[in-house]
Amino acid sequence: VISFAVQPDGKVLVGGQFSTLGGQTRNRIARLYADGTLDDTMSAGTNGQVSTLVPQVDGKVLVGGQFATLGGQPRSNIGRLNANGTLDTGFNPGA
Fold first, then answer.
1. pLDDT per residue as tens digits for the range 75-86
2. Which of 12, 16, 40, 53 is the most buried (most CB within 10 A)?
């Protein structure tokens, strides 16, 4: 684990170099409930290290690191996830 952030709803975002969390496959990014159990709704992963996570007030999450894909789609080092944990396809700054 390299980074984590707490969302306004108390859920905890976790990023890093891991491939499993809570006994489930999670490729370098995951979300936990406030009690530490895995939030199964977030399943978007990356193919490289997640270094930073920034929760937005609307529930979306900015993701930064050393990756070429996020949520199975091309994203170079920065991307954004929707509040439900899926890729925000309208956000692609092409870093």
1. 999 999 999 999
2. 53
pLDDT average, residue stretch 34-63: 95
What residues contact residue 55 under an 8 Å CB cut-off, 6+ apart? 5, 6, 7, 8, 13, 61
Could you tell me where the beta strands, DSSP code E, fall in 1-95? 3-6, 12-15, 20-21, 24-25, 29-32, 49-55, 61-66, 69-70, 73-74, 78-81
Which pTM does this prediction carry? 0.93
Dihedral (Cα; 57, 58, 60, 64), 10-degree rounding: -30
Residue matched to tokens 């006994």: 23
Taking the C-alpha atoms of residue 21 and residue 31, their distance in angstroms, rounded to an integer, is 9
